[in-house]
Amino acid sequence: MTIIPAIRAILDSPDLRLDGFLGPGHVSTVIGNRPYRFIARDYARPVVVSGFEPLDVLQGVYMVMRQLAEGRSEVENQYARVVREEGNPLALKAIAQTMELRTTFEWRGLGFISQSALKLRPEFAAWDAEVRFELPGVRVADPKACQCGEVLKGVIKPWECKVFGTACTPERPIGTCMVSSEGACAAYYNYGRLARRRGRATEARESLAVAAHPAGS
Ligand code: SF4
Fold first, then answer.
1. Is residue 116 within 8 Å of residue 15, measured between CB atoms?
2. Which end of the chain is more exposed for a tag (fewer CB within 10 A), N or C?
3. From ligand 1's centre to the CA of 141, what distance in Å?
4. Which DSSP string do the residues of 187-203 spell out, in sequence order?
5. Do 126 and 170 belong together in one domain?
6. Is 147 in the pocket of ligand 1 (CB under 6 A)?
7. Do 29 and 117 lie in a common domain?
8. Are residues 115 and 192 located together in one domain of the fold?
9. 137 assigned to some structural domain
10. Which of 152, 161, 169, 176 to probe ligand 1 with, by most ligand atoms within 8 A of CB?
11. Which of these, 204, 165, 157, lies nearest to 17 by C-alpha position?
């Protein structure tokens, strides 16, 4: 898969509600920072390429917030210890030699996006499982209840999906955002409950304070 067309499709969504992006450190190790420039230039959204350690993510979020506070939209590199501006030229060369773009590819949650995935070039057909074996066209349609597309576009928070934490959990995921541990829904399921529990505790304390000291008393 190639993520730039998918990001462009998300940015072109009329219901987009994302203010900035954390660029994926693993992908960026190969492709570098340049491919993200259109996000800052054409869509005025900050991008911070970030690593995966907790402090990387924290600093990446801080850098996005700082750009927003200062009214900037640039591509910044939090993961500079690994990601270089030009990426990995050797890996890019190997990919270009062995692969070509597919006309279209179906992304779960986002639908068909043109030229958003790669396939082996014909000269490597001997090693291409799609050519060598009769593989049925496997399509895994998202269940109707799944709102991954809206989660990806920031339209809803994961817990606002009707099946979050009930029919859809990390143990029995029904959408892609719940499948891997870094998926938005899985992350909210595993860690968001703590924040919401803290939020409820604060609300409860505030209501008690209001009840004890009603306005004007
Ligand atoms: S909670 Fe599950 S079904 Fe709902 S959007 Fe997330 S992954 Fe999809």
1. no
2. C
3. 13
4. HIIIIIHHHHHHHHHHH
5. no
6. yes
7. yes
8. no
9. no
10. 161
11. 157
Structural Rg of the chain based on CA atoms: 21
From 110, 140, 146, mutation site for ligand 1 pocket: most ligand atoms within 8 A of C-beta? 146
Prediction pTM value: 0.82
Of 178, 188, 193, which is best to mutate to test ligand 1, by the most ligand atoms within 8 angstroms of its C-beta?
178
Domain that holds residue 42: 3-132
pLDDT (tens, 9 = 90+) of the chain, 217 residues, equals: 788 999 999 999 999 999 999 999 999 999 999 999 999 999 999 999 999 999 999 999 999 999 999 999 999 999 999 999 999 999 999 999 999 999 999 888 788 999 999 999 999 999 999 889 887 766 777 788 899 999 999 999 999 999 999 999 999 999 989 998 889 999 999 988 666 665 566 666 665 565 565 544 4
Note whether residue 184 is domain-resident: yes
Which phi-psi region, left, alpha or beta, contains residue 139 (left: φ > 0; alpha: ψ -120 to 50)?
beta
CA neighbor of 21 nearest in space, from 38, 42, 44, 46:
46
Instruction: Tell me how far the alpha carbon of residue 10 lies from the centroid of ligand 1, in angstroms.
Output: 17
Q: Which atom of ligand 1 is nearest to the CA of 185?
A: 6
Q: Are residues 127 and 187 in the same domain?
A: no
Decide: 161 in ligand 1 pocket, CB within 6 A. Answer: yes
Domain count, the chain: 2
- Does the beta carbon of 184 sit less than 6 angstroms from any atom of ligand 1? no
Atom of ligand 1 nearest to the CA of 162: 4
* Domain closes at, from 105, 132, 159: 132
Query: Residue 201's Cα: distance from chain center in Å?
Result: 30
